[in-house]
Amino acid sequence: MDSRRTLDELSAAVLQVAAHRSVRDVLQTIVGTARSLLDVQYAALGVPDEQGGFAEFVVDGISDEQWAAIGPLPRQHGMLGVMLSDPTPQRLPDLRSDPRFGWWPRAHPALGAFLGMPIVGPGTDGDEILGAIYLANPNGRDLFTEDDERLLGVLAAHAAIALTNARLFERGRELTLVQERQRIARELHDAVAQTLFSLRLTAQAAAALVRRDAERALTELDAVTALATQATDELRQIVAELRPPDLSREGLAATLASRIALLNRVHASAIEYTSTGCPKLGPKVEEAMLRVAEEALHNALQHAHASKVSVTLSGNQRHSILEIADDGRGFDKSSVATSHRLGLASMRERSAAVHGRLTVESSPGKGTTVRMEVPHG
User: Fold this and answer.
1) Average pLDDT for the chain
2) Residue 328 CB partners (closer than 8 Å, separation 6+)
3) Domains and CATH numbers, the chain
4) 0.90 cut: is pTM over it?
């Protein structure tokens, strides 16, 4: 590759990586860019968690079927672990011949020539390894070169900046969400709560006047009606403002991805998210599906204590389909108390409000699957 073309492609790659604000989008773009820029068969990027696994692990060059056959996300072992503890790039003629190589599942593709590059960013105690890029099997050549290593190093340096900025953006969005909740709480207290207090006092006054001054009691009851109408209008206005700003801006698929990425950072459970073929939906439908997903995820993580949860958003010509499946403790669907505690009635009401159909499959010890289907049009 000539130097001019390399510079142009690197410049375009850096701009593409920097264009994203979502952490997941940044990671996927880095992987795809690295694979294309260095012309390799396989590329992956891992971001470590604090339990010896990966908070994020994205790949390029492997089909969905292959990825499903490989199995669970890898742990920080072998060369994967080396790259997360040592900031030195690793360029190997054959990964399998290196003594630090561990193993891979039977369905894993065979990797030969290998180039690994840590993504190093500023940390509180010096440089911090944010993750690592793994490349294997260069096309049309047997080995990775020093030029390949330098090129990937430049991309990794820009990736560190983009990843840090995306994390700051998501944290800022989380802070905005907290502030929005506090604002709504203040509005409920300052407006609706005060109106309801006046409503209660007026109703008590009307009750006291019924027998000794019926005409005045009727006047007080008219005031009760007016106050109730006012409270309803105030609540309707506040609820209308509750539509998540990221849902309006980014749509359901991207909003679910960011919410799940946040949950993956704060929970030990592994949540996998897949979105395929789901069209743009109306605001009320998207909000209903988001709320059902949030409720089902809360149940899986807080009540079912699931270790694995899968969230799938898909669509066909007639329906959009949301499915949340977990491997948690499950429950007896005939138990009214349990159903109330898990908010199943609320989920069904949200689904019915947009002409959807909600089904829940669960039994003790066998996990739970929540499926919501909404017709198009």
Assistant:
1) 79
2) 300, 303, 304, 305, 306, 307, 367, 368
3) 3-169 (3.30.450.40), 172-240 (1.20.5.1930), 246-375 (3.30.565.10)
4) no
